[in-house]
């Protein structure tokens, strides 16, 4: 294997011809106005080695990737009781489907579909006000990214709230089954803010590094969660991290990952590295098209597939 | 870590108090009459080390575990064209559900649900008669298990055929959408025979070893498939290997695996070992209850989780 | 056939032994506290003959029966354009199901499931404020019942709003597909108020009489709608008036009808009479159990089945 | 109202411009080769008056219209016990959908979808061989049509069998839930033969006349079934007679009816007449497009809507 920087440069070259492909999310102006030709990649190893290319330092809206971090926080707060409110199975459905929710009486299939993430956010809120909870999430991301510049794009959060009828529908539906403890409006407020976190690839890879290292931040030495919990979050990323294209991602990339409609993907090579890619054009399932290609290339070049 | 034999003995001790738990499959006499207190485990490493315990040498009906081997064979025969006829996504549904098949116009979600396995069997048949195809599958299993004693229980195959209305329904349904090339009766004949293969844990672990070693049988040196193909079969085992409990298995065990209603599970620790467990009592999702506990214990003791 | 009063008395006697059966709706206090032993029936013929028994003069919450009246009003206002926003098919699903709505991209199956009624209410609102629209609906019911005492139970409306998460979910879901023109909160406000209309059996039968007489109130001579429209509203009552028990009602009663969870049913015998029954205990499908029995008996005794 | 012959002639004229519209069923050659410009209509009143136009004397494949007659026969044979095996609700789904069948564990929604008709045929078979049962059905149709020339097109039956994978799937599926008593192959044999009955509009209207007259053939005086049973068969025709377009037919035509993919429709005007129309071009829901228009026109001109 070449040095990490050469690998990352080669991955960048591999995907260069595809940059701009895919369809940029257009449901809110803030996302639709992003330049489709952006592409960034950052890899940080458990030893602290860094390699990056393209727009790796440009912050983007991480959207659903935030679900990995709120799940970790909620599990630390409420423990395994969380699994009474949300399942651990792939849904076989798009990210915002409501069908299974009706059949399964308000218990979402997993924490990485929108319905499940709302339940996780509800668990995080427990007994507090939205601003505190939003501050806690932001604080966690800043600490994990080791960068106090990490922020929430309030304009994006406002837009999400104005157009978030589907999420409002999901939250009311779950509430109708008694599976939300906090007011629907408060759960949505926190949720729209967590989706509006903006991080660069470098910040995001750094923030996810504890997952690569069994729950301990390998650079700061801080314990974020138990090793078994870190493994389990990664198992969920593998089976459920990309909605109804999770199987395809596992098949082609072979790493636990989580994508967001902003075009970012966080992938974890256990005991090796955290990888963040960003390219705004999405495939039909809502995952970054060029981002997934870049990860395929990276895994091919490094042999980091868990399989 | 202890020696492998000590680990396997400790796993056996861990689950001893649970042996007999779960519900034995009862849809055909040959399965329902199996002693629910059977338990076997066998581990074979890529170096050829073996460790086993309990009824590891007793043959049992591998049922759906056969899908891993027919998938490998079919991919070698027809290549990536197979994916035009069957998907690669978790179904989120029980093993014999027909609902998605209607929505998705006869293209099964993945090769490890019954509908998908029928399509794989159809691809294997292509242009030949059932006896030849059954002989090919049996020959492949004998070669992989390095044991000419591996056999098909024809009595089980007959029973499957007599009670297999659900599979007959699935096959006719797929045929109605034009996604089977061979006569329904021939596809079913081969399918019921492959499900009736009987192997012991020792034979099954040996047969699956090529998947642990990137497609090359590490003991005989034979190439069975390309490394990328072996990885991809394992990715499918991870996301789809246990029907609508695949997420739970990934969460708790963290290894690619495939279960059968006969109570067997084949799990692969990439680049380390193949593991076979057998215990007839099933959980609600049709996976061996004690078998899954044994794998959880094994992974806890070895750290072999891919995550 | 006996005189109408004798028939109604005989019907009352037929069901007397069943009064109190069924399960009273309990999702809001105002409904759950109704005496389950209430039973009322009123028949008003196109000639103006009246017969009634039991609690026929006691107002009750008409709930979903209001959908018949708002549909008539909305059709008069927007005409056949309404059918671009809501279908005319039985749903085969419970009253508040969201599954079909997802498959059919936000266009509810028919105007008598909750989702469809929300779309009808949205059409009625068009360009006005909720209080005006609520006043219009109330005025229409007062005119049709020929009784200025007809009122809305504001306490019930408030309770509906506080517990109406499922309806809020439906409305947001429809809005997400762009099939509501007015703000979700305003549509819900009108909807919860229309459901809280309270009429007695006598008032309700009187209010529905124009449907029995081809769209013309036979007692006042007023034209409410064209004959074809009256027929079509009745066709929808026949095929969709009782959620996923509409077939059963058609099979046993054979009259177009509409039920509400308050325990009321409005049935129409074309060119003969309007009939209102009330008994709070519901069957599994949410239709008044004793009310349906009474209508079965009435039809048996009068031969008024349309079949 | 004009005389009946004038009305029928006027209806013919009303639809003349549309003849040839719609899509002819093409799943078997025998149906696809029918001239799309065929159009026939026949009306027979309870008084024995006849009026007809176009190809009213040309036999066509009645297909699913046969379900009305086998239901009547099966109810006479097994009585209300039949309803333990098949429901009475509109399905909200296409004629050959399998989805609900899985949710409802093998009990079809109603006797007029294919799955339900297979259960009805199974009840008719009970303890006999297919040829006897086919002979009984044919005999019943000949008696009802008062014409020994009524026949089964064996070529059509053979084609149905060769391409009937979807029906074979449904039958096996129902059998898997234990809801068929006879061998799948025998149920299918009878079913494919009943679908292949060929009658002209004149024969078909005559055959359905007992339904218009409360179960008694008004011309021969024979009692076919009790009045309540005749009403209930008509109620099912109203709510379930046209698959997922039953609501639309009720809305526009307002008569109980049953359509077949051969382009025929049998409609009943209670206590007035039986009407048969035939035009091979189908709408999206599989109902004769011009046939439905003709019935709309007829009802408009006669005021025969039950509403």
TrEMBL record, chains A, B, C, D:
<feature type="binding site">
    <location>
        <position position="160"/>
    </location>
    <ligand>
        <name>substrate</name>
    </ligand>
</feature>
<feature type="binding site">
    <location>
        <position position="261"/>
    </location>
    <ligand>
        <name>substrate</name>
    </ligand>
</feature>
<comment type="similarity">
    <text>Belongs to the glutaminase family.</text>
</comment>
<feature type="binding site">
    <location>
        <position position="191"/>
    </location>
    <ligand>
        <name>substrate</name>
    </ligand>
</feature>
<comment type="subunit">
    <text>Homotetramer.</text>
</comment>
<protein>
    <recommendedName>
        <fullName>Glutaminase</fullName>
        <ecNumber>3.5.1.2</ecNumber>
    </recommendedName>
</protein>
<feature type="binding site">
    <location>
        <position position="243"/>
    </location>
    <ligand>
        <name>substrate</name>
    </ligand>
</feature>
<keyword id="KW-0378">Hydrolase</keyword>
<dbReference type="Pfam" id="PF04960">
    <property type="entry name" value="Glutaminase"/>
</dbReference>
<dbReference type="GO" id="GO:0004359">
    <property type="term" value="F:glutaminase activity"/>
</dbReference>
<dbReference type="InterPro" id="IPR015868">
    <property type="entry name" value="Glutaminase"/>
</dbReference>
<dbReference type="InterPro" id="IPR012338">
    <property type="entry name" value="Beta-lactam/transpept-like"/>
</dbReference>
<feature type="binding site">
    <location>
        <position position="64"/>
    </location>
    <ligand>
        <name>substrate</name>
    </ligand>
</feature>
<keyword id="KW-0007">Acetylation</keyword>
<feature type="binding site">
    <location>
        <position position="167"/>
    </location>
    <ligand>
        <name>substrate</name>
    </ligand>
</feature>
<feature type="binding site">
    <location>
        <position position="114"/>
    </location>
    <ligand>
        <name>substrate</name>
    </ligand>
</feature>
């Amino acid at each position: 294997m070449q040095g990490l920087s050469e690998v990352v440069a080669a991955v960048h070259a591999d995907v260069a011809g595809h940059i701009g492909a895919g369809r940029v999310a257009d449901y809110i102006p803030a996302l639709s106005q992003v330049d489709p030709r952006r592409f960034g990649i950052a890899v940080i190893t458990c030893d602290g080695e860094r390699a990056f290319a393209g727009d790796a330092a440009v912050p983007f809206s991480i959207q659903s990737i935030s679900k990995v971090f709120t799940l970790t926080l909620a599990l630390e707060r409420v423990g395994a009781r969380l699994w009474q409110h949300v399942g651990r199975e792939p849904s076989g459905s798009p990210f915002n489907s409501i069908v299974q929710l009706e059949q399964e009486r308000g218990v979402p299939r997993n924490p990485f579909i929108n319905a499940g993430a709302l339940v996780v956010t509800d668990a995080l809120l427990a007994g507090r006000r939205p601003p505190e909870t939003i501050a806690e999430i932001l604080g966690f991301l800043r600490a994990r990214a080791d960068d106090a510049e990490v922020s929430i794009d309030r304009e994006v959060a406002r837009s999400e709230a104005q157009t978030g009828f589907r999420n409002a529908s999901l939250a009311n539906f779950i509430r109708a089954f008694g599976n939300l403890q906090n007011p629907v409006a408060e759960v949505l407020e926190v949720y729209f803010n967590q989706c509006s976190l903006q991080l660069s690839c470098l910040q995001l890879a750094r923030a996810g590094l504890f997952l690569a290292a069994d729950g301990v931040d390998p650079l700061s030495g801080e314990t974020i969660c138990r090793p078994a919990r870190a493994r389990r979050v990664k198992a969920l990323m593998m089976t459920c991290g990309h909605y109804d294209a999770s199987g395809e991602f596992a098949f082609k990339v072979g790493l636990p990952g989580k994508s967001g409609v902003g075009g970012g993907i966080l992938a974890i090579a256990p005991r090796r590295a955290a990888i963040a890619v960003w390219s705004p054009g999405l495939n039909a399932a809502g995952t970054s098209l060029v981002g997934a290609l870049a990860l395929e290339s990276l895994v091919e070049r490094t042999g980091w597939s868990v399989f």
